[in-house]
Structure formats: structure tokens, C-alpha cells
Amino acid sequence: MIWTLLSIFVISFVYITLNTLRFMLTMKGYRNLAPILSVLEIIVYVVGLAMVLNQLDNVWNIIAYALGYGVGVRVGILIEDKLALGYIMATVILPSTDSELPKILRASGFGVTQSQAEGLEGDRLVLDILTPRNQEQRLYGIVTDREPKAFIITYEPKYISGGFWVKKVRRRFRQ
């Protein structure tokens, strides 16, 4: 019985980990890899579900499946975080318009577009920075080290085309 429960847990865990990764790949535009992963995902899903449905009167099978599902979601998210697929767009608003941060970021390999803005308390310097997600923490570190009072907001762009970023950012941060 313990092997059956462990098998159900592992199958559910593998299924939902694949499901989570496939969903994230789909959202990030990996249109060829996501369908391939979905084939494997469904095979694992059908096998696991069949094991549970064949013994629906055993509540432990259902619990093992549910636990595998929950752990699989968490692990899928952790894997995607480690892969850091895609890009982020960071908008950094600086309280001073004469900051050296744009030069420092450019020297560190980041593409920076800067503009002037007016905030509640006066003029501000606004930086728009596109970077691969695997450089996100490095970007935060540079910004907060040089400008502790900076306001930072990030989001994931769905579509990127043209300009300096597309050609150079990919080359610059390749690992």
C-alpha cells in the first residue's frame, strides 16, 4: 500500500510540475516547447488519475494525489524561477535628475532609456530598462546600491521588437 501511495504522490507531483512549467512556457511565448511538454504531461496525468479512480474508496490515494499536486505546483514555480525565462521591463524613478546611475547601468551592460518627469515633489529622472530575467537581481542590486531612494517597478513585456534592446541585450547577457 505504501508503494501505491508513493507512486500516486510522485505521479501527481510530476504531472503538476510539468503542467506548471508548460503553462509558464506558454505565457512566455515558447510555442514549440510547450506543446511537446503537454504530451508528456497528459500521459503522466492519465496514469496517475487512473490509479486514483480505480480505488476511489481509499481516501489515502486521494490525499496522496492532492499532496503531490500541491508540492508539484511549488516545485514547478521554483524551477521556473531558476530558469528565469524571458525579460523584465524595469521603470526606475530617481529623486534626483543628475544621477550617475544611467551611466553605471550602461557600463554594466544594461540598455537604459532615460527621460525627465515631474513628481509631487519636483523633477524626477525616469529610467526604462529592459533586461533578461536572469539579470533582474543584479539590476536591483546596482540600483539600490547607488540610489537607495529609487522607486522601482517591474513587469514582463509580452512582445519586444526593434531597437537596441532586441539585438544587443540578447548578446550581452548570454551565458
What would your notes on this structure say?
With 175 residues, the chain is α+β, with helices and mostly antiparallel strands. It folds into 2 domains: 2-83; 87-172, Alpha-Beta Plaits. Helix content is 57%, strand content 19%. It is built from 6 helices and 4 strands; from the N terminus they run αααβαββαβα. It has a 4-stranded antiparallel sheet. A hairpin with a 2-residue loop joins strand 2 (111-119) and strand 3 (122-132). Helix 1 packs antiparallel against helix 2 (33-53) and helix 1 packs parallel to helix 3 (59-83). It starts with a helix and ends with a helix.
Q: What's this, in brief?
A:
This protein is of the alpha+beta class and 175 residues long. The chain contains six helices and four strands.
Cα-atom radius of gyration? 23 Å
Helix/strand structural class: alpha+beta
- Reading off the top of the CATH hierarchy, the class of the largest domain is best stated as Alpha Beta
Number of helices: 6
Strand order in the sheet with the most strands? 2-3-1-4
Number of strands: 4
Protein name: UPF0316 protein IWT30_01151
Keywords: Cell membrane, Membrane, Transmembrane, Transmembrane helix
Subcellular location: Cell membrane
InterPro entries: DUF2179, DUF5698, UPF0316
Features:
175 residues, alpha+beta, Alpha-Beta Plaits, 6 helices, 19% strand, DUF5698, transmembrane helix, UPF0316 protein IWT30_01151, transmembrane, cell membrane
